[in-house]
Amino acid sequence: MAKIFMNMSGGLKMPAIGLGTWQATDETELEKALNIALEIGYRHIDTAFIYQNERVIGRVLNQWISSGKLKREELFITTKLPMHGIHQDRVEFFMKKSLENLQLDYVDLYLIHFAVGAKYVEGFPTLDEIEFQDTDHIAIWKKMEEQVDAGRTKTIGLSNFNEKQVGRILKSARIKPACLQVELHVFLPQHKLVQYCQHNGIVVVAYCPLGSPAHNKFIATVGLPERELPDMLNDSIIKKIGNKHKKTAAQVMLRYLLQRNIVAIPKSVTPSRLKDNIDVFDFALDANDMKSLDKLEVGEEARIADFKLFKG
Ligand SMILES: NC(=O)c1ccc[n+]([C@@H]2O[C@H](COP(=O)([O-])OP(=O)(O)OC[C@H]3O[C@@H](n4cnc5c(N)ncnc54)[C@H](OP(=O)(O)O)[C@@H]3O)[C@@H](O)[C@H]2O)c1
């Protein structure tokens, strides 16, 4: 009913629940959370150059690997080419930077973070410093393929690309995208995109699977006005289904994705939530539950990650 691992093209297995780390920038908090997560069985970690936490993650992973508590092969690590690296001349540079930060010889999955690239600035650009430029997906993808050839990543994929953009890459790729990471949750179930990807052997990874309740905290840090966001964790139907199975709303939302063969990467730095979010393999939603959850679809209006915050 729900797979613990999702088979990827190229033979890799991706753990179906991963740990999201966006907004996890407090070093002490993240270090503690990562140690707990690894203790309780998380083996899949999702980060990105732009999250500014690769170094902390690298430090913790290094402690686990060098002490013999974990083998590198047991882990699945994803990181992403940042917006100001989305250019054919900068793929290798940023890939190497992420590996250095993570203290790893290779990652399992390297994603192009966005469909549009921006001009290079050193370090981490502020919103004001982001200046979009023409982006040649095909040329960039060739450089991504070279990262696999060089052994720096086991596989490659896309994030925030639409069906048409994925299709263009599929047509010309020597190494097909193994994964598409997009916003996906009960209110924005993305049925058409999921069907397209799964038909083409692309594993779909859902970000904001719990509705990203702290999203407005980020909006405030970039000086933009708060937005009214959907509150799925308190939705009465989701909670009712949870009560029936003695599970939380969060667990129902994650299980809903797993039963659609979608990988979920909930972020948490709270020990009890870390435990809840991975404790989703001992129950099953029945056909009626799935139908009720499908009916909660809101569509685009429920989209949380609003990239219109970038100028242009
Ligand atoms: N590719 C992209 O462009 C992109 C965009 C956005 C996100 N992502 C990735 O996807 C991951 C997940 O997305 P997200 O972080 O935006 O949203 P999310 O996972 O839907 O929500 C995370 C928030 O929910 C809280 N939370 C976690 N578990 C909970 C539970 N069981 N009950 C109640 N609250 C809970 C967390 O708080 P605490 O941490 O305080 O517990 C955190 O504030 C990110 O961390 C990142 O790795 C990728």
TrEMBL record:
Site note Lowers pKa of active site Tyr, residues: K80
Residues annotated for substrate binding in this entry: H113
Family: Belongs to the aldo/keto reductase family.
Domain called NADP-dependent oxidoreductase: residue spans: 17-296
ATP-binding is among the record's keywords: no
Origin superkingdom: Eukaryota
Protein name in UniProt: NADP-dependent oxidoreductase domain-containing protein
Residue numbers annotated as active site: Y51
Pfam families membership: Aldo_ket_red
Membrane-spanning residues: none
Keywords: NADP, Oxidoreductase
InterPro entries registered for this protein in UniProt: AKR, Aldo/ket_reductase_CS, NAD(P)_OxRdtase_dom_sf, NADP_OxRdtase_dom
GO molecular function: oxidoreductase activity
